[in-house]
Amino acid sequence: MKIGIDRIAFATSNQFVDMAELAHARHEDPNKYLIGIGQKKMAVIPPTQDIVTMAASAANKVLGPEERAHLGMILFATESAIDNSKSAAAPLIRLLDLNPHVRVAELKQACYTGTAGLQLAKGQVALHPDQIVLVIAADIARYGLKTPGEPTQGGGAVAMTVKATPRILALEDDAAVVTKDIMDFWRPFGCDAAFVDGKYSTKVYLDFLADTFTHYQEMNGRTVDDFAALLFHLPFTKLGLKGLRQLIADADLKIGARLAQQFEAAREYGSQVGNLYTGSLYLSLISLLENSTTLRAGERIGLYSYGSGAEGEFYSGILQPGFAAQFTTRPTGQALASRKQVSVQEYEKLYDAAVHGPAESALSADDDPADFIFTGVHNHIRQYEQRGN
Ligand code: HMG
Fold first, then answer.
1. Ligand 1: which of 185, 197, 241 to mutate, judged by most atoms within 8 Å of the beta carbon?
2. 365 CA distance to ligand 1 middle (Å)
3. Rounded mean pLDDT of 119-124?
4. What pTM was estimated for this model as a whole?
C-alpha cells in the first residue's frame, strides 16, 4: 500500500523585513546575508500570531470534507510550545470545528519532528488504511536581536495530510536515522530565544547528512543519480546548498547541475521566510513543487531532515500522478508576494512585543488580517479567535 503526503499547505504572517535593510542596520555587508547566509527576506511574526494561529491557517487549507470525515489523528510538531502540558493540537479542534473523536499529541525534537510526525502518521495509516492523519509543523525561530543568529529567524506553519494512495508523495520504506546527545542549539525553560553554538551546529548538520546518506545508500545501493531533486532542512538556505554540494561532490557534472537547478526552486520560499524550524524542510518541498517545471510523476525526491540536539534522517518519496495539480496556481508564492514590508525599527518593536508566559495581556489585531488570531492571555489562558465567527 502506498502511503504519503496527500495535501500540503503553508501559512505565515503577512509581513517581512528586507535582509539588505537588516544588514545595513547591523553594519554588515548586505551580501553576507543575501549570499553568505542565502536569505532575501525574513518573516516577521506579530504578537497576534503564534504556532496555533498559523497552524490553524495552514490546516484550514488542507482540510476538505473528505479529510474531516476520515481524520484519525493530529500530530503537532513544534519546539515553540505554548504550554508545558496541553498540546497545541487541542485548540485546533475548536478553531477548525473538527470532529472531537480524534487522537492528538505534540512532538518535540527540535527541527526534526515534522519528519517524526510524517513517519508516525505513515505507521498509523498502515494500521488503519481508512484514516487520514494531519501533521502540523509550526514554529517561530527566535534568536536575540543583533546576534549572529538574528538573520536566520523566521516562522510559519506547514500542514500536511497523510493517507493511503496519496496524491503528492508516497514515502519509501528505507529511512536512515541518527541521534546523538549533542549541544549545538537548545532553549532552556524560561528562555524565549534559543542558545546556539552556531558554527558547531552547521558542522553537526553536515556530519549527520554524511552519516544518514551513507546509511541510506547501504540499505538500497542508490546514488544521487536516482533522485530528481534533493531537499534539505533549511535553517538558512546557504547551509542546504553546502549539503547539496557535499552530496554531489563526486557526481557526474550534468547530474550535479540538474540537482543544483532543482535546489534553486526548492530554496526560493525559504529564502523569503527564514527558518521555521520543524516546517523548513516541508516549505522547501512546497517551493520545489510550485517552482520547478521539470518534475515528473514517478520520480524520486530525497529529503534530509535535521533537528539540533541532535537527530538527522535521510529518506525518500516518489512523486504521484497528478501531483502538480495542487500547485499550478502557486498559492504559497502568491501569498508570500502579497506580504507587506516593515522597517527594521518596526520589526524590532514587534520582536519586543511578543507575549511570553502567563502574564495578563490584551492584544489589538487591527493590523493583522489573518483568519485566526491570538488575542492575549486572561486568567493564565491563551485566548484565540476565528474571524467571521
Ligand atoms: P556568522 O558567524 O555571523 O556568519 O553567522 P559567518 O561569518 O560565518 O558568515 C556566514 C557566511 O557568509 C560565510 O560563508 C561567510 O564567508 C559569508 P561560509 O564560509 O559559511 O560559506 N560572507 C559573505 N558572503 C558574501 N559576501 C560577503 C560576506 N561576508 C560573509 N560580504 C551562523 C553564521 C550560522 C553561525 C549564524 O547565523 C547562526 O548562529 N545561526 C543560527 C544557527 C543555525 O542556523 N545553525 C544551522 C545548523 S543547526 C540547525 O539547522 C537546527 C536549527 O534549525 C534549530 C533546530 O533544530 O531546532 C537551527
1. 185
2. 34
3. 98
4. 0.98
